From TrEMBL, chains A, B, C, D:
It comes from Vreelandella arcis. Pfam families: GFO_IDH_MocA, GFO_IDH_MocA_C3. This is Predicted dehydrogenase. It comes from the Bacteria. Residues 149-281 form the GFO/IDH/MocA-like oxidoreductase domain. GO terms for molecular function: nucleotide binding.
Amino acid sequence: MSNQHDAPRRLRLGMVGGGQGAFIGGVHRIAARLDDHYELVAGAFASDPERSRAAAAELHVDDDRAYPDYQTMVEAERKRSDAIDVVAIVTPNHVHFDVARTFLEAGFHVICDKPMTITLEEAETLAELVERTGLFFGLTHNYSGYSLVRQARDMVANGELGELRVVQVEYPQDWLSTRLEDSGVKQAEWRTDPKRSGPAGCLGDIGTHAYHLARYVTGLELESLAADMHTFVEGRALDDNVNMLLRFKGGARGMLWSSQVAPGNENGLQLRVYGSKGGLEWRQETPNQLVHSPQGEPPRILTRNGPGLGEAAMAAARIPPGHPEGYLEAFAQLYSDFALQIHAHQRGERADALALQTPGVADGVDGLTFITRALASSAAGGQWVDM
Amino acid sequence: MSNQHDAPRRLRLGMVGGGQGAFIGGVHRIAARLDDHYELVAGAFASDPERSRAAAAELHVDDDRAYPDYQTMVEAERKRSDAIDVVAIVTPNHVHFDVARTFLEAGFHVICDKPMTITLEEAETLAELVERTGLFFGLTHNYSGYSLVRQARDMVANGELGELRVVQVEYPQDWLSTRLEDSGVKQAEWRTDPKRSGPAGCLGDIGTHAYHLARYVTGLELESLAADMHTFVEGRALDDNVNMLLRFKGGARGMLWSSQVAPGNENGLQLRVYGSKGGLEWRQETPNQLVHSPQGEPPRILTRNGPGLGEAAMAAARIPPGHPEGYLEAFAQLYSDFALQIHAHQRGERADALALQTPGVADGVDGLTFITRALASSAAGGQWVDM
Amino acid sequence: MSNQHDAPRRLRLGMVGGGQGAFIGGVHRIAARLDDHYELVAGAFASDPERSRAAAAELHVDDDRAYPDYQTMVEAERKRSDAIDVVAIVTPNHVHFDVARTFLEAGFHVICDKPMTITLEEAETLAELVERTGLFFGLTHNYSGYSLVRQARDMVANGELGELRVVQVEYPQDWLSTRLEDSGVKQAEWRTDPKRSGPAGCLGDIGTHAYHLARYVTGLELESLAADMHTFVEGRALDDNVNMLLRFKGGARGMLWSSQVAPGNENGLQLRVYGSKGGLEWRQETPNQLVHSPQGEPPRILTRNGPGLGEAAMAAARIPPGHPEGYLEAFAQLYSDFALQIHAHQRGERADALALQTPGVADGVDGLTFITRALASSAAGGQWVDM
Amino acid sequence: MSNQHDAPRRLRLGMVGGGQGAFIGGVHRIAARLDDHYELVAGAFASDPERSRAAAAELHVDDDRAYPDYQTMVEAERKRSDAIDVVAIVTPNHVHFDVARTFLEAGFHVICDKPMTITLEEAETLAELVERTGLFFGLTHNYSGYSLVRQARDMVANGELGELRVVQVEYPQDWLSTRLEDSGVKQAEWRTDPKRSGPAGCLGDIGTHAYHLARYVTGLELESLAADMHTFVEGRALDDNVNMLLRFKGGARGMLWSSQVAPGNENGLQLRVYGSKGGLEWRQETPNQLVHSPQGEPPRILTRNGPGLGEAAMAAARIPPGHPEGYLEAFAQLYSDFALQIHAHQRGERADALALQTPGVADGVDGLTFITRALASSAAGGQWVDM
């Protein structure tokens, strides 16, 4: 078990969003519990006070810390001696910014779902705030928590692929192939609603994950892009398919595809990276293997916690090879990494000193820049635009 | 999220075993936490009192409930008003029996790792005790917690495969291909030591899992078997490879292979079931898909929480299709199912009234019968023996 | 066996190119033999007369029909009563045009490797010549000979995918990741030499295959494209990686990637097509299965000659399901289809009356148009250009 | 192209069996043509003279060499100056022996389908005859023609797996899951008829292939076996499922499963071999890859004609890696190897001097011994019997 060590007290976690019918709130709670570094003690779980209290009752949260809204929550918590250490923001996208700003200004660490904000300006405002306050800010680009994603990142960084040439990333889904948003499915409703999702649909929901994964593993910076965004399902306001060409600084080229109208694809996130010395391929749906192809040699199947892995990958695995870990474990890995950084901060160390390189506010700004530029390119008919 | 509902209080969990260097104890703890139905409050984590206390400190267990041994623990806990509700037994095999008996006799519910005991007599003793006390007894044949294993079981029970003909089950590993037990690896040491593992090595460690999975999914009872057990690694006292022919009541035939000396296999548990109307194939290392081949039609890939599943499978999944769940989630599923039964018991209902059909003491007796008969067959040169 | 029927005489086949050290000539010969519709009787196998005669001796071709060059061959053959029925052109690209024109003008049917010519003008000249003479012209876009590619084409045409939305095609290889052209490998030499390959490297060699496959299966016409072509290996004159965005008439969008510098990819041709009712995925390296995902249902694995296939697919398979057919069989399928059309022509029927829809001169023109427009787009920095 | 070299004349091939409705005859003919070492010139294609002549007409065989029966054929051919060099026997099993004996006694080389004969006595008679005459006898255990099967054999022989421990081989099919023999399917009729198939059904049809493959790759000799044969489909006279335990000389253990009632399996022949230093896994349905797992290292995917292969594998491949070869190419490989040996014999060299180690009469005797012992074991209730 990789995460067993001298245990500081569990961090007190608050949550904004994540009431009944929500999906990602429950994921954050499991992720927080899994490695036992947090206890959920407070929340504004829903915009309706009664529903917030009902959620709290289900979640073993004391009734007096089931808040009707996040403003009340921040005011009440700042006065408590046992105040929360950190708040997790798991609302629809359009609410992230106000909540994050409010908690940061009140001195709380923040864990925020992605995309960080709706606009680039909001993202930059948060970045300044984080810089100014020195507080911890974690962004749950959760795929970066997979053990073999970290292995891939290490291998690239160590030069095992040589000079990078081609980066192909894709994230196809099929669940929005029909007008599911008309069927009362809450997840579909807000994700296809510009008021709650912002101006990017599929691009913001999963395209940003694909983009982040490519950046996280390769370390490359994007120089320019040409985006062809489209809405296939009639009557839908936001894009449901994104095709994109990428040019990275230093010369590597790539493509990015994200789609929510590709039948047969559930969460087909896939990254393929090719350099002068070899290639790497990883698929999210079978995350416990990573195929490494040294140029001119037979491909090798690296397995989570199996032979031939580096330290970063080993540190992000819980159980022996062959017993699969999945999405929740990867999400939990981020929460555990965040906890280490929050504890460090509480000991008076600067949180970023740990160099865990988990996704943070800078990734949020980068993601919004990516969204903004892709929208600009697509609006111009798919022309190339600089980042 | 399938496991969100009106929440009764968390069950107070005690643990025997699972100190530093242990593997399965940590798994049980994550499994207990994952769906938030338990809190770990007490334990006799190690045979050495100091190591037990050190483990407790790491695990957020109060020092006064870190017991030096299980006898002390049972005595102390039975006197508390906030006593544990249930104890998890995660020691090496040879200790299971005494601990389970002691806690049952003191009126505690029990969750026990497998194989349940060393001898069939011990297993039958526990079964009588459970029958007499009416207490809950859960056996962690954890692979039965996978969502698609439950789907497979349902499909067989509903007659979708027709009359069963052939059952092929295997569980190959490679980690004991060399004399790892000489290298100070604790997991290897006790598993190859007859004093702690009992008379069955590979057979008891993973062969029983394969046997249980076949029984769980097919519902078939074994009639007779012919076992060819062998030890390939020189100097090892217990079997490290088991080949077996199976005849089931009603006429189905099968084979079982378990091995710990098959390089390239991590936890290659695989079940294939064929009937007059179709076939099913499931592999533990890619547990989020189940291939169903109706005779004369193209095979269909069923995915966890995807289209075409029954209720049992849906109830044992947490997150949408395409985001993989793994070993820990399957293990957690058993813990959650156990919690439902313990709560029912505490409300005065008979635990088995829920018909969740999770593995229990009867499976433990069946497993020990299987081990005993396989050993007899192999000792007789691989002759057929009746169950 | 699908190809057994009343046998007309074997067609007499001549060949230009395909001497020692060539690759594709041998493939054409096996393809011609496999279903027994041809016998090789004449050839100008190499530019050097001695090497042409040596090749003939190896190939059981009579010495007096081992020609020193194609001009001599055409003159000699047109005078024979047992003249060849058809010539196969398997030279490097730059020679295709002159040979094809010469044989067509002399009244011979032609089978030509792809890309058909170096320039679009040449392609159009051949198209006019074929139109004028009424002769048969087959272009070996061989992947269209795979049984399950034909199944995919049928399913799209029958509306099983609904309205097409997204088409993703790729053809990555790795064999030119290093400067193999400096190592005396003949295949690498001419393919990276603009004089012999024309202005397109990877694009012409395999990008055109990917493009043809997408067109063949979907029936969609390309409206516009944006191409980002690049040469990664230093000192190479032609592109070795192509990333491309595609817009089809009618609204479907797509991407095309072809690469010869992607380590771990041998011939990773893959086509994925998604429509409003379902999706299809096919990979050339495992060509005996086609995954069909009806929206909202479990994916189905269609197998070559297995259950659920249409007539076109059945007609293009030789052996029962589960015994894999491969590249040579797909290539042979084109040769067999070509034979049917040549026999029809010889009976006085118009060759195209058979509607076998095998690749022909129109596909050659289309391919050169594609190459020409892609080069224009890339030269303009990756801008969108109309077809 | 591996098979291009100084070409001796094509061997003149005769065939017994293989008329309309037959399956394996057509396969033999394609196999003989593929590498261009044979021409089919004579045959007794069917028991009915008219049908034999009709088949000849389809196959470009001269009418005067379309014989009404094999006796007439052998008499006529032995008198011709252009007599056949070799006869291929592709009849149902029960005819093999008489035809083979007759042609051998008349001095012809023989290529025979498997199982070689119905009884062990017949097999031994043929072996003596081959020994006495010195003629070439090839047995088409065609899976031994796959390039990567030869690679596996080489790796075992070179000690790359260390000392062999476990051999798991299986060959499941599904096509006889119902009473197909009642539907007028000729292939099903004779295979389930003891008069034409002999006393072994599934065992003789595909179990012998599995056995041969295991022996071919490992080089191990079988010491004893315990067979549990069963007939699941009501009214069928022969076994349709075989489960078997194997003990090899030297201590390795194994299992063999062959079935024709396992829905979802087309030709699922699979071999897995494990030794003290590593493991190998190969599947017939994806024959272009072989997974090699050195103990303690990541598994490596060897591909046909890809990096890291030995000479034997390279010699048995035609086209570059990534373009799949299949069943017909493997079958053709045997025919090409046979041709080399027949040519050697005709030059006065002893055929076996080439040490190509293709399957021959000794393998036929071994196969019949295996069948005989398995039948004996099963008849005795699945008891162990020595080979």
